[in-house]
């Protein structure tokens, strides 16, 4: 068993070298396929991270009338905190709101003038509510339509982050679909190229194969070098894809981070999940190639 | 050992290579199959080791009906039949020893056994000292002896040779035929396909003559008549 495996591997490696250009071309196509799949993956990760980043910063500002007392405010805060959807509630008191307004418009005489003319504090208190998930805001906002609190609230401002998220998704979606299409196309080409490579391999080795058949080699033995070769191609392509992707990620990550104004942790993601990502891609590719190889052998190996 | 009952072989779409051939070859026999070119000799030889399957009829090898042999059983059959065929020459990039060893490697033999068998069969064909030569460093006759050595690695009960002397001069032909006789003396059934008149006449063994796909004569100690 072991000796048969050793011999089959030896033949597989010999096949690889015997027409090394064909082998290299095959590996290159496999590599292109993997790269396009990985670009797609990068895109998914970046989109995910960007959306998470935006989502973490989504909040609802609830503005109260000036007349609302601190006790009333506290009761709303405690009510909100009982909601499981609410992550955090920050209180901005009327005084804080005024101070903040004044610092924001420092040097703007006209505005400060009109504030003075108003006399007193025109601001009410504000609550800044954060949710665990963007989808929960609708619920939180409707919860505030509570008859007890309704009349204290002047305005609820749900900054329209959903639009930002939608626009991120819309802009990446198009690229993503293109990526899916391209990867699919590459996978198809991969299968065809591998089919052809095996066909060539069978042609180049027809004398050996003829002798093998004649002296009673099992079909399994005749087939295994071609299957092993398909695995070898997949393995080389996966290793090369990893080796190429790493420096590319290092280059790209700062630019992506700058664009989204956040830390995507792209490289770290790929390193931490490398085993799954590349292991999965290797298995996918090896499986596809073995299927293509089997088809080629069925067609051209008369065994 | 070999029994053919009413076999016909029709190649796609309608080339009749063999018509209703019946013959019986005893264990240890030496049989020559002769006939003009294109009469179905090679086809008959191919049927014996299941390279082709008969369109009609039954072929039994040692009592085993191989007319409808499934692909997975073919290796088992092939390890009992030594085959020398014009299409299957030596691999030019392997030495004589490696060429012979190849036949054992691909059928899963252990290295220790290969190391024993290779010198043995090379000695049988008289090339014990040529193991490290490459095929192009050998004469045509020597090359053919290596091919025969390779066919002997499994100690076959039947030996089928299709025109083994086709490209050889008289002297080399003589040597190959002597070798086949020696193999036959060890008890192996030999089926020799040839159209060489001198060979057949010198052998004084059984001759089966085929013409247009049919057996037209089958005589003990026959002579080439066509
Ligand atoms: N694979 C094949 N497909 C179609 N026709 C074939 C094939 N092999 C042989 N033939 C035909 O069958 C006939 C017998 O061929 P063959 O057995 O090779 O004869 P021989 O060996 O006596 O010269 C010939 O007419 C040949 O053209
Ligand atoms: Mg012939």
TrEMBL record, chain A:
<dbReference type="Pfam" id="PF02687">
    <property type="entry name" value="FtsX"/>
</dbReference>
<keyword id="KW-0472">Membrane</keyword>
<keyword id="KW-1133">Transmembrane helix</keyword>
<dbReference type="InterPro" id="IPR003838">
    <property type="entry name" value="ABC3_permease_C"/>
</dbReference>
<feature type="transmembrane region" description="Helical">
    <location>
        <begin position="20"/>
        <end position="43"/>
    </location>
</feature>
<dbReference type="GO" id="GO:0005886">
    <property type="term" value="C:plasma membrane"/>
</dbReference>
<feature type="domain" description="ABC3 transporter permease C-terminal">
    <location>
        <begin position="182"/>
        <end position="302"/>
    </location>
</feature>
<keyword id="KW-0812">Transmembrane</keyword>
<dbReference type="Pfam" id="PF18075">
    <property type="entry name" value="FtsX_ECD"/>
</dbReference>
<protein>
    <recommendedName>
        <fullName>Cell division protein FtsX</fullName>
    </recommendedName>
</protein>
<feature type="transmembrane region" description="Helical">
    <location>
        <begin position="226"/>
        <end position="249"/>
    </location>
</feature>
<keyword id="KW-1003">Cell membrane</keyword>
<keyword id="KW-0131">Cell cycle</keyword>
<feature type="transmembrane region" description="Helical">
    <location>
        <begin position="269"/>
        <end position="292"/>
    </location>
</feature>
<dbReference type="InterPro" id="IPR004513">
    <property type="entry name" value="FtsX"/>
</dbReference>
<feature type="transmembrane region" description="Helical">
    <location>
        <begin position="177"/>
        <end position="205"/>
    </location>
</feature>
<comment type="similarity">
    <text>Belongs to the ABC-4 integral membrane protein family. FtsX subfamily.</text>
</comment>
<feature type="domain" description="FtsX extracellular">
    <location>
        <begin position="58"/>
        <end position="144"/>
    </location>
</feature>
<dbReference type="InterPro" id="IPR040690">
    <property type="entry name" value="FtsX_ECD"/>
</dbReference>
<dbReference type="GO" id="GO:0051301">
    <property type="term" value="P:cell division"/>
</dbReference>
<keyword id="KW-0132">Cell division</keyword>
From TrEMBL, chain B:
<comment type="subunit">
    <text>Homodimer. Forms a membrane-associated complex with FtsX.</text>
</comment>
<keyword id="KW-0547">Nucleotide-binding</keyword>
<dbReference type="GO" id="GO:0051301">
    <property type="term" value="P:cell division"/>
</dbReference>
<dbReference type="InterPro" id="IPR017871">
    <property type="entry name" value="ABC_transporter-like_CS"/>
</dbReference>
<feature type="domain" description="ABC transporter">
    <location>
        <begin position="2"/>
        <end position="226"/>
    </location>
</feature>
<dbReference type="GO" id="GO:0005886">
    <property type="term" value="C:plasma membrane"/>
</dbReference>
<dbReference type="GO" id="GO:0016887">
    <property type="term" value="F:ATP hydrolysis activity"/>
</dbReference>
<keyword id="KW-0131">Cell cycle</keyword>
<keyword id="KW-0472">Membrane</keyword>
<keyword id="KW-0132">Cell division</keyword>
<dbReference type="InterPro" id="IPR003593">
    <property type="entry name" value="AAA+_ATPase"/>
</dbReference>
<keyword id="KW-1003">Cell membrane</keyword>
<dbReference type="GO" id="GO:0022857">
    <property type="term" value="F:transmembrane transporter activity"/>
</dbReference>
<protein>
    <recommendedName>
        <fullName>Cell division ATP-binding protein FtsE</fullName>
    </recommendedName>
</protein>
<dbReference type="InterPro" id="IPR005286">
    <property type="entry name" value="Cell_div_FtsE"/>
</dbReference>
<keyword id="KW-0067">ATP-binding</keyword>
<dbReference type="InterPro" id="IPR027417">
    <property type="entry name" value="P-loop_NTPase"/>
</dbReference>
<dbReference type="GO" id="GO:0005524">
    <property type="term" value="F:ATP binding"/>
</dbReference>
<dbReference type="InterPro" id="IPR003439">
    <property type="entry name" value="ABC_transporter-like_ATP-bd"/>
</dbReference>
<dbReference type="InterPro" id="IPR015854">
    <property type="entry name" value="ABC_transpr_LolD-like"/>
</dbReference>
<comment type="function">
    <text>Part of the ABC transporter FtsEX involved in cellular division.</text>
</comment>
<comment type="similarity">
    <text>Belongs to the ABC transporter superfamily.</text>
</comment>
């Amino acid at each position: 068993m072991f000796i048969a495996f050793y011999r089959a591997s030896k033949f597989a490696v010999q096949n690889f070298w015997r027409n090394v250009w064909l082998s290299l071309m095959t590996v290159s196509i496999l590599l292109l396929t993997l790269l396009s799949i990985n670009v797609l993956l990068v895109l998914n990760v970046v989109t995910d991270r960007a959306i998470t980043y935006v989502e973490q910063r989504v909040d609802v500002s609830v503005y109260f009338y000036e007349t609302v007392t601190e006790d009333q405010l506290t009761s709303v805060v405690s009510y909100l905190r009982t909601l499981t959807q609410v992550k955090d509630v920050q209180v901005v008191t009327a005084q804080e709101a005024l101070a903040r307004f004044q610092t924001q418009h420092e040097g703007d005489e006209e505005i400060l003038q009109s504030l003075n003319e108003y006399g007193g504090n025109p601001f009410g208190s504000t609550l800044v509510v954060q949710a665990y998930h963007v989808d929960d805001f609708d619920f939180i906002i409707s919860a505030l339509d509570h008859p007890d609190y309704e009349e204290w609230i002047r305005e609820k401002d749900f900054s329209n982050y959903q639009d930002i998220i939608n626009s991120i998704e819309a802009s990446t979606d198009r690229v993503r679909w293109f990526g899916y299409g391209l990867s699919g196309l590459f996978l198809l080409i991969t299968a065809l190229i591998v089919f052809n490579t095996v066909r060539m391999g069978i042609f180049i080795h027809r004398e050996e194969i003829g002798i093998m058949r004649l002296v009673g080699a099992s079909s399994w033995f005749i087939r295994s070098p071609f299957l092993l070769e398909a695995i070898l191609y997949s393995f080389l392509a996966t290793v090369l894809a990893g080796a190429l992707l790493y420096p590319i990620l290092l280059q790209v990550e700062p630019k992506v981070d700058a664009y989204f104004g956040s830390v995507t942790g792209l490289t770290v993601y790929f390193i931490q999940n490398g085993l799954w990502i590349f292991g999965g891609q290797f298995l996918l590719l090896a499986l596809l190639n073995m299927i293509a190889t089997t088809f080629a052998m069925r067609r051209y190996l008369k065994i | 050992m070999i029994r053919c009952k009413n076999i016909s072989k029709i190649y796609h779409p309608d080339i009749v290579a063999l018509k209703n051939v019946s013959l019986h070859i005893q264990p240890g026999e030496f049989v020559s199959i002769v006939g003009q070119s294109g009469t179905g000799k090679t086809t008959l030889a191919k049927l014996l080791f299941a390279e082709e399957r008969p369109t009609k009829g039954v072929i039994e090898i040692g009592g085993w009906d191989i007319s409808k042999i499934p692909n997975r059983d073919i290796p088992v059959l092939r390890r009992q039949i030594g085959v020398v065929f014009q299409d299957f020459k030596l691999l030019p990039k392997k030495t004589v020893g490696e060429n012979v060893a190849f036949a054992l490697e691909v059928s899963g033999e252990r290295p220790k056994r290969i190391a024993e068998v290779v010198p043995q069969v090379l000695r049988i064909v008289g090339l014990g000292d040529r193991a490290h030569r490459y095929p192009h460093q050998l004469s045509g006759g020597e090359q053919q002896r290596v091919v025969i050595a390779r066919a002997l690695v499994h100690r076959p009960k039947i030996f089928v040779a299709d025109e083994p002397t086709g490209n050889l001069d008289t002297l080399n032909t003589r040597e190959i035929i002597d070798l086949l006789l020696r193999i036959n003396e060890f008890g192996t059934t030999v089926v020799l396909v040839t159209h060489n008149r001198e060979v057949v006449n010198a052998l004084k063994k059984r001759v089966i003559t085929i013409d247009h796909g049919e057996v037209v004569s089958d005589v003990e100690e026959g002579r080439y008549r066509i």
